[in-house]
């Protein structure tokens, strides 16, 4: 398994570099929905990773943002690889550096491995359950920020009412908590694990954007929501992930707002 792990890491790095090369040579971009795009590179990178994973782990399932679920699985008993070939496609297409390749492995309804690779930033995050989280080989440890120095990453889902997002912004302003929205949830979650930001919130995130980063945060000592509850693998879920103290503050806000539909995934 260790040799396979190394081969997979090499494949993820290679896929990220291929995305860089494809961008330099020009891209075709298709609109999937409002503020939702897919590029030629998204499809090529996902196909490349799927082939590698199938050769290494032929018994496992595969869930990709572009190709969907490629075989019928029971996610609670079987392994499934969950891939976002390029998270932050808009950033990627526009030539910004804030995008990444995200790969996670789920078995027995738990996240077992997670990788986030940001080629333009030369950042390779990796985590195995129970074995810590790493950035470019250096072990990560999340620390609580000083009061008044908190920085929260945000995302906004079109699947949820915009008022939820507005309420959160108002609450953060009232508590003098700074926030940023960079347009790549998987990479922002990874940056919680490294301390670049101290937490991340999004009212709905798909599993291919969330799982790798959530494991990174948990393995680095942060707190996360139970994303896989309520069939989060296939349907997505709410995300709260942060340093322990900040997570508690956000959790309390959620409880006060009594979002009953999301409560099961927070507890």
UniProtKB/TrEMBL annotation:
A GO BP term, please?
Answer: transcription antitermination
Reactions catalysed: a myo-inositol phosphate + H2O = myo-inositol + phosphate
- Gene3D superfamilies given for it? 3.40.190.80, Fructose-1,6-Bisphosphatase, subunit A, domain 1 (3.30.540.10)
Q: Which InterPro entries match?
A: IMPase, Inositol_monophosphatase-like
Identify which cofactors the protein needs according to its UniProt entry.
Mg(2+)
In the Enzyme Commission scheme, what number(s) does this protein have? Answer: 3.1.3.25
Q: List GO molecular-function terms, semicolon-separated.
A: inositol monophosphate 1-phosphatase activity; metal ion binding
Q: Which UniProt keywords apply?
A: Hydrolase, Magnesium, Metal-binding, Transcription, Transcription antitermination, Transcription regulation
Q: What is this protein called?
A: Inositol-1-monophosphatase
């Amino acid at each position: 398994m260790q040799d396979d792990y190394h081969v997979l890491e090499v494949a993820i790095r290679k896929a990220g570099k291929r995305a860089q090369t494809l961008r330099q040579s020009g891209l075709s971009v298709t609109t999937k929905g409002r503020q939702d795009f897919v590029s030629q590179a998204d499809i090529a990178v996902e196909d490349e990773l799927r082939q590698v994973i199938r050769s290494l782990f032929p018994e496992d399932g595969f869930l990709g943002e572009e190709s969907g679920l490629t075989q019928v699985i029971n996610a609670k008993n079987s392994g499934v690889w969950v891939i976002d070939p390029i998270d932050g496609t808009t950033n990627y297409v526009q030539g910004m550096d804030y995008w990444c390749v995200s790969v996670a492995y789920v078995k027995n309804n738990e996240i077992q491995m997670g990788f986030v690779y940001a080629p333009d930033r030369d950042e390779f995050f990796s985590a195995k359950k129970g074995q810590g989280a790493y950035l470019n080989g250096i072990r990560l440890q999340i620390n609580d920020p000083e009061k008044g120095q908190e920085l929260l990453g945000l995302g906004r889902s079109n699947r949820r009412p915009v008022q939820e997002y507005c309420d959160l912004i108002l609450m953060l302003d009232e508590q003098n908590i700074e926030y940023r929205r960079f347009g790549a949830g998987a990479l922002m979650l990874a940056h919680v694990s490294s301390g670049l930001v101290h937490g991340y919130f999004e009212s709905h995130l798909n599993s291919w954007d969330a799982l790798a980063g959530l494991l990174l945060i948990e393995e680095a000592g942060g707190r996360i929501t139970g994303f896989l509850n309520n069939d989060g693998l296939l349907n997505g879920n709410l995300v709260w992930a942060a340093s322990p103290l900040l997570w508690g503050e956000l959790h309390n806000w959620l409880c006060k707002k009594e979002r009953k539909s999301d409560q099961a995934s927070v507890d």
